[in-house]
Design a protein that fits this description.
Blueprint (H helix, E strand, L loop, with lengths): L8 E5 L3 H11 L5 E5 L2 H11 L3 E5 L7 H10 L8 E5 L4 H10 L3 E4 L4 H30 L4 H15 L10 E8 L7 E9 L2 E9 L3 H18 L6 H12 L9 E9 L4 E7 L4 E5 L4 E5 L19 E4 L5 E5 L15 H11 L5 H15 L9 E8 L1
Parallel strand pairs: 1-2, 1-3, 3-4, 4-5
Antiparallel strand pairs: 6-15, 7-8, 8-9, 9-10, 10-13, 11-12, 11-14, 14-15
Length: about 400
Amino acid sequence: MERTNSIFSILVVDDTPKNIQLLLTILRKEAYQIHVANNGLQALKKAQTLLPDLILLDIMMPGMDGFETCRQLKSAPDTENIPIIFLTARTESEDIVKGFELGAVDYITKPFNSAELLARVHTHLELKQKEKTIQESYQVIRTHQDRLISELKQAKATQHSILPQQFPQILNGRVAVKYVLMEEIGGDFYDVFELEENLFGLMVADVTGHGVSAALLSFMFSSLFSQACHAGTSTAVTMRLTNSYIENKVEDGKFATMCYAIYNSTTQQLTYTVAGHPPGLVIRPSTNEIIELDTKGAIVGLLSTEMINYEEKTIQLYTGDKLLLYTDGILEIFNEQGKMLGLSGLKSFVLQNQNSTIENLLEQLYEFGNEFSEGNGFTDDVTMLVFEIT
């Protein structure tokens, strides 16, 4: 984090003096600047004046409760982007989902655990700082087109920095990725990360367009997706949160397709949600079959969150299975006769090469795409991620 903790300001909103005192004791260990409000109306006024970096907001308060306070904060242009963490003694899933739908980024249950509270506060302050940096980079590139060459080099380095430099160790699992851009920078991005012990997220996404504009959008989508990921949050809720975060932040017609899965290394179960993205494929050598992973759900960023219902499904994986997530660049390859490789062609190839190592499978698939195009090459960015149960 670029700034020291003492520069970050936090607004604590709670009607119980004992809770406020406890929060102040915990947060002052990190030298944050702390401001206090005792009710919702006071919170709205102080938030408008102080513009804190983070708000810790109690749900159960007399008069204006935390939900209504959150709604009004997110409706005001000056405060809509301030991350809000709910403080609650209630753990009903309906309350948690309602909080997320209103725009909260997280929740902390009472009684407070000091280490957990500080960790969550630090995480969301860090995410806010990263998002601010990304937004500033976006404005710089748009404003200074005469420096396009140098800015492209900087953007390329920045884009690679948001991609995982190494993958987490997954029990009895291996990951390999093939990432090829048609220009210096592009709109594909992916991530593999640990949510909590034995739970791992795998994501591949494709932002509309090519080149600079697509790369800048990928920075934003990647950042907002990271904000939406929480341990214990389903893939469908994560996708819904990502869509809600991106609303009103991009031009009409700008969107991303995404496939997000959570793998449980203890049960070997994979839960997944597909948002307008090509279906994931499970390659199962033990039965010589390919299983498509697809769900109902709109493209991210295209529609209002109120109009969207994302679906979630679960599949049992077995030793030897390979999961292939990819962008449509590998599908939209045409030969001289105008025939597209498509999903059927992809499935046929991976079935024939199902016993290859995951590294070789990706290289073979990319070479096959080039051969299929008969010299025409790829017309879009290509990202392929394979996860194998060993």
